[in-house]
Amino acid sequence: MDGFVDLVDDLLRVSDDKKEVDDADFAVNARDPKTGRALLHEACARGDMGIVKLLLMKTEADLMLRTMLGRCTPLHLAVSNNHRPIVFLLLSHGADALSRDRFGCSPLHYVKSPSVAKLLVQYGGKALDYNTVRSLKFRVP
């Protein structure tokens, strides 16, 4: 992970106390100047469940942070690399299954397996239901 080796080492050495991670001397959502990706993007693309869990549980890693070039979310990268357990973890932490990249593609456009497609449809359906209810609730008569 170009540019993030020291950050990963620091994160892995931090204790279970969330406050210590929050106070640590690093910006978890900082992007690598060469790739335009943050640490969560790299961990999702590479399938590193340990780092993804650590970032989601103990830091303020932004699930909706987009890469600079393709405007991909961490979910887009996990799906396109067929990392089903990471896809599930991201979705269960609130990643948007309906988010679009700069080409107008949702993560579903990058699916490589039926099980990942099913997860996205399940979570995307929940988002659609929520948005429908929300729009009806706040609809101006």
TrEMBL record:
<dbReference type="GO" id="GO:0085020">
    <property type="term" value="P:protein K6-linked ubiquitination"/>
</dbReference>
<protein>
    <submittedName>
        <fullName>Uncharacterized protein</fullName>
    </submittedName>
</protein>
<dbReference type="InterPro" id="IPR002110">
    <property type="entry name" value="Ankyrin_rpt"/>
</dbReference>
<dbReference type="Pfam" id="PF12796">
    <property type="entry name" value="Ank_2"/>
</dbReference>
<dbReference type="InterPro" id="IPR036770">
    <property type="entry name" value="Ankyrin_rpt-contain_sf"/>
</dbReference>
<feature type="repeat" description="ANK">
    <location>
        <begin position="70"/>
        <end position="102"/>
    </location>
</feature>
<keyword id="KW-0677">Repeat</keyword>
<keyword id="KW-0040">ANK repeat</keyword>
<dbReference type="GO" id="GO:0004842">
    <property type="term" value="F:ubiquitin-protein transferase activity"/>
</dbReference>
